[in-house]
């Protein structure tokens, strides 16, 4: 008998009588004021939010903050002007080690926790949102859902991704005496541009 | 740390030698409990969420074999290799084989309590594989050559000065440097090098979805992702109880997990791994290691609902004042005390007694595990199975005889009161554990029973 | 209404005043109270130590003593919880179930059955209320800090009827005192530390008295207070509600 067969047999023998799944449709959030709520929540967890009218405004903000010599990559075609370097797909992520800023698009934001849902086709490479020193994500103002329940309803028919992630703020840790430190292994900052 | 054969009470006694440190440990964890309270009170539907999560998990347990098969089929269809490990040994062997096949001797690992339970690091070290833990807290305890003392906050027992000393010794930071910001930055640089050079990455699994074959890993640091996305091969190890039926159920669990754990609305990263990236191998190791046995114990199977948030530890007044290492088990605190005896009743017979049964653990549990009731039930099982110390058995027998007979009880009570009233030294001596830090009550002249006889007919 | 008075063994032996106050209070409120004199203990000390199988004798005795009352009332949340959850009768389980449903902790009995709305008591002191775990979380005598639920307190609502009493706030409203039955000796270090911390919270907020529904927790804290040479006293809630001032 293989371990697989052994485990499955033991589980089958010991599991209790079938119990139905509860209905979770009653769990839903309040769509009122989600943009404000989103902004507050993300700010509380260390992120930064800009509400912008268009891509030019994003480009302007990026140029104000980052120096010309900073290595910037973007997967957003409308923002191609913020960098001299076009994103080159690659199987190894290691040469992105010194990227200062990566700007990508997100599918939508979640008001209750400040997260943005991103799947790998928006990242260029799975490692990019993590290896970059700073991360910026562009979402549309109409793309903010109240809670995680709406988030999973929204992604129900988009299960073709190989990798997807909710990102809520910069990388952080409080492992040393519970002192919050921003910038653990991933980005030291996370900015979300909410596009009207 | 080798705690040897010492029991919880003994290890807790040692921990309590430094009272200021106990106060610090207690306050730190209580602060996290308070953050949890603030966070959950913002959700009016909190108790409904807990109830729903508990029911979903019961559905999982009642159809675990079906969900395991469904998950395996989906994962395979996604291009993931699925392995089955009956116990810790087989788990370790599988991981070792996968590393060896890559022809490397190093691996980076993000947090996985399962690998702690299986003592994977020790096993791999014996076989010449160097493991670097990438979660900052885990890296710190790894440098200190200690196990984690908490499942979410591995080095919650360490002071920053001690961490500074470790970093000075192993990572070359200046001596007496204990600023958390500085130390974290040092770890970031040190581990970046590791992430960039390791070909094999291992992560734990927070949730695995039967419907789609994907698994979710939650971190604040981004270390699981840094490891997995930069390595050629990603090994994810999970206990078989980590399954949930459908994607939409993730909404319920992700809302509960971090609010319960640290009071955050969600972890910074909730990563959904479904398919290996191009050119990468992805492996899932499904581990039983006693879980199927626990599933068959009706009184204790609900412990398998645990989502490892650590809330029961933060709220436990005993955990806060005895430290995680006093539980001499990979998972400490109340939940560890109901999981451990399933693995080894003799070795962990003391743990269900390391509680006042105050019930706070059950109240904070996001999946409503009846933790304190299970502690009570484990006590009955352990005594019946013969794991009670002889002295206790004799004491209990004497107590039973006394209490079964009103006559003996009255005489014994009177004698006891006379002894305590006339000769406090006979009772208040060093051999009486009560008296070490507490005085005995002043005995009254008469019992209520005696008063009643005189004052009521 | 015939009430059987259930007095926990350690209250009988060490804290008769709490028992007398309970009796007088119930009588004052119009109950016919009887104290069955052959009672000893509910068996909780054995059960919580893992020896529930040794509690048959205690169960039998309990049923013999308390059969036939309309209600059974005890000045203890812990003992009542034990009886409610673990009283069995091999020969007549229906009788055990009946008794389990009739046994009440004193303050619940006052608020839920007698529906007391006023008391003639006066207690002009600063008092800290200790929430004993078995009463609070076990019998749900008051809202619990862990849960998202409306606030309430049965003992608190009764204390609010006492004239001139000043209830103090605590930093940790419902932390365990660390008594825990045999835990207090088996885990002496943690138990006494918990007791010290609980007492410190009351002292820090200026308590003159610490009260509660369970004498066992109060006995534990009294042991700590006395060792520290403190003048702060413990007093069972029945004594305050009965208006007796020592």
UniProtKB/TrEMBL annotation, chain A:
Q: Which residues form the LUD domain?
A: 101-195
**Entry superkingdom:** Bacteria
Question: InterPro entries from the xrefs?
Answer: FTHF_cligase-like_sf (IPR024185), LUD_dom (IPR003741), NagB/RpiA_transferase-like (IPR037171)
Q: Pfam family example for this protein?
A: LUD_dom
Q: What is this protein called?
A: L-lactate dehydrogenase complex protein LldG
State the organism of origin.
Answer: Mucilaginibacter yixingensis
UniProtKB/TrEMBL annotation, chain B:
Picking any one GO molecular function of the record gives: metal ion binding
Q: Identify one Pfam family in the record.
A: Fer4_8
Q: Which organism is it from?
A: Mucilaginibacter yixingensis
As recorded in UniProt, coiled-coil segments are none
In the UniProt record, the signal sequence range is none
| TM stretches of this protein | none
What GO biological process term is on the record, naming one?
lactate metabolic process
Please identify the protein, giving its name as recorded. L-lactate dehydrogenase complex protein LldF
- PANTHER family xref list: LACTATE UTILIZATION PROTEIN B
Show the InterPro entries listed in the entry.
4Fe4S_Fe-S-bd, 4Fe4S_Fe_S_CS, FTHF_cligase-like_sf, Helical_ferredxn, LUD_dom, LutB/LldF, LutB_C, NagB/RpiA_transferase-like
Sorted UniProt keywords: 4Fe-4S, Electron transport, Iron, Iron-sulfur, Metal-binding, Repeat, Transport
Domain 4Fe-4S ferredoxin-type residue range list: 296-326
Domain of life per record: Bacteria
UniProtKB/TrEMBL annotation, chain C:
Q: Identify the PANTHER family for this entry.
A: LACTATE UTILIZATION PROTEIN A, UNCHARACTERIZED PROTEIN YKGE
The entry's cellular-component GO terms read: cytosol
The beginning of the lineage is: Bacteria, Pseudomonadati, Bacteroidota, Sphingobacteriia, Sphingobacteriales
Give one GO molecular function term.
Answer: oxidoreductase activity
Provide the Cysteine-rich domain boundaries.
3-83, 127-221
Q: Would you tell me the protein name for this molecule? A: L-lactate dehydrogenase complex protein LldE
Q: Which InterPro entries match?
A: Cys_rich_dom
Superkingdom classification of source: Bacteria
Q: Name one Pfam family in it.
A: CCG
């Amino acid at each position: 008998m293989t371990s697989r067969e052994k485990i499955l047999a033991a589980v089958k023998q010991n599991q209790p009588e079938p119990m139905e799944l509860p209905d979770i449709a009653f769990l839903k959030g309040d769509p009122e004021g989600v943009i404000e709520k989103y902004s507050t929540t993300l700010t509380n967890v260390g992120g930064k939010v800009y509400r912008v009218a268009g891509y030019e405004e994003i480009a302007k903000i990026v140029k104000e903050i980052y120096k010309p010599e900073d290595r910037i990559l973007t997967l957003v075609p409308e923002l191609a002007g913020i960098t001299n370097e076009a994103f080159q797909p690659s199987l190894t992520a290691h040469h992105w080690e010194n990227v200062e800023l990566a700007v990508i698009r997100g599918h939508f934001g979640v008001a209750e926790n400040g997260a943005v849902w991103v799947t790998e086709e928006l990242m260029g490479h799975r490692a990019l949102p993590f290896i970059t020193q700073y991360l910026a994500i562009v979402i549309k103002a109409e793309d903010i859902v109240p809670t995680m329940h709406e988030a999973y309803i929204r992604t129900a028919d988009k299960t073709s991704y190989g990798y997807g992630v909710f990102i809520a703020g910069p990388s952080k840790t409080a492992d040393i005496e519970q002192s919050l430190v921003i910038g653990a292994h991933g980005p030291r900052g996370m900015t979300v541009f909410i596009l009207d | 740390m080798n705690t040897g054969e010492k029991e919880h009470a003994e290890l807790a006694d040692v921990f309590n030698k430094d009272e200021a440190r106990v106060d610090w440990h207690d306050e730190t964890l209580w602060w996290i409990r308070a953050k949890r309270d603030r966070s959950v009170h913002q959700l009016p539907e909190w108790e409904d969420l807990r109830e729903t999560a508990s029911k979903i998990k019961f559905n999982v347990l009642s159809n675990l074999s079906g969900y395991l098969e469904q998950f395996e089929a989906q994962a395979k269809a996604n291009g993931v290799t699925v392995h089955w490990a009956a116990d810790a040994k087989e788990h370790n062997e599988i991981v070792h084989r996968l590393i060896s096949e890559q022809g490397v001797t190093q691996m980076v690992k993000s947090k996985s309590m399962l690998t702690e339970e299986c003592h994977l690091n020790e096993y791999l070290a014996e076989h010449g594989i160097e493991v670097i833990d990438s979660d900052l807290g885990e890296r710190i305890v790894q440098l200190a050559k200690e196990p984690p003392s908490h499942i979410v906050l591995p080095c919650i027992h360490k002071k920053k000065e001690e961490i500074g000393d470790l970093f000075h010794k192993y990572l070359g930071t200046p001596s007496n440097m204990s600023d958390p910001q500085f130390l974290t930055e040092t770890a970031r640089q040190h581990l970046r090098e590791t992430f960039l050079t390791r070909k094999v990455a291992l992560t734990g699994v927070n949730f695995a979805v039967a419907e789609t074959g994907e698994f979710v890993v939650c971190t604040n640091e981004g270390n699981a992702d840094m490891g997995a996305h930069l390595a050629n091969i990603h090994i994810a190890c999970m206990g078989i109880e980590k399954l949930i039926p459908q994607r939409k159920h993730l909404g319920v669990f992700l809302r509960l997990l971090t609010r319960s754990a640290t009071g955050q609305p969600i972890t910074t990263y909730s990563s959904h791994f479904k398919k290996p990236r191009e050119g990468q191998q992805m492996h899932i190791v499904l581990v039983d290691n006693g879980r199927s046995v626990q599933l068959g114990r009706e009184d204790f199977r609900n412990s398998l609902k645990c989502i490892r948030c650590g809330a029961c530890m933060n709220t436990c007044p005993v955990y806060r004042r005895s430290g995680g290492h006093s539980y001499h088990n990979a998972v400490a605190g109340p939940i560890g005390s109901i999981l451990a005896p399933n693995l080894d009743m003799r070795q962990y017979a003391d743990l269900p007694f390391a509680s006042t049964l105050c019930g706070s653990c059950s109240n904070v549990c996001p999946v409503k595990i009846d933790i304190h009731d299970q502690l009570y039930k484990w006590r009955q099982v352990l005594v019946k199975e013969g794991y009670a110390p002889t002295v206790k058995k004799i004491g209990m027998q004497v107590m039973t005889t006394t209490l079964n007979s009103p006559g003996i009880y009255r005489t014994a009570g009177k004698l006891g009161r006379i002894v305590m009233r006339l000769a406090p030294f006979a009772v208040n001596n060093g051999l009486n554990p009560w008296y070490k830090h507490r005085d005995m009550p002043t005995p009254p002249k008469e019992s209520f029973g005696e008063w009643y006889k005189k004052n009521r007919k | 209404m015939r009430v059987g008075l259930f007095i926990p063994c350690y209250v009988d032996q060490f804290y008769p005043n709490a028992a007398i106050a309970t009796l007088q209070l119930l009588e004052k409120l119009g109950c016919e109270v009887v104290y069955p004199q052959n009672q000893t203990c509910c068996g909780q000390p054995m059960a919580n130590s893992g020896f529930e199988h040794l509690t048959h004798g205690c169960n039998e005795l309990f049923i013999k003593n308390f059969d036939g009352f309309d209600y059974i009332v005890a000045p203890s949340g812990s003992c009542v919880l034990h009886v409610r959850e673990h009283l069995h009768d091999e020969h007549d389980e229906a009788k055990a179930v009946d008794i389990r449903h009739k046994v009440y902790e004193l303050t619940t009995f006052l608020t839920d059955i007698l529906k007391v709305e006023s008391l003639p008591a006066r207690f002009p002191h600063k008092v800290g209320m200790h929430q004993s775990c078995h009463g609070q979380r076990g019998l749900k005598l008051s809202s619990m800090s862990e849960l998202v639920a409306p606030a309430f307190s049965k003992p608190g609502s009764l204390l609010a009827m006492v004239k001139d009493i000043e209830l103090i706030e605590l930093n940790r409203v419902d932390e365990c005192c660390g008594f825990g039955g045999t835990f207090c000796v088996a885990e002496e270090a943690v138990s006494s530390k918990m007791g010290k911390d609980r007492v410190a919270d009351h002292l820090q907020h200026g308590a003159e008295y610490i009260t509660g529904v369970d004498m066992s927790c109060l006995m534990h804290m009294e042991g700590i207070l006395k060792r520290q040479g403190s003048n702060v006293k413990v007093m069972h809630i029945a004594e305050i509600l009965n208006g007796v001032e020592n």
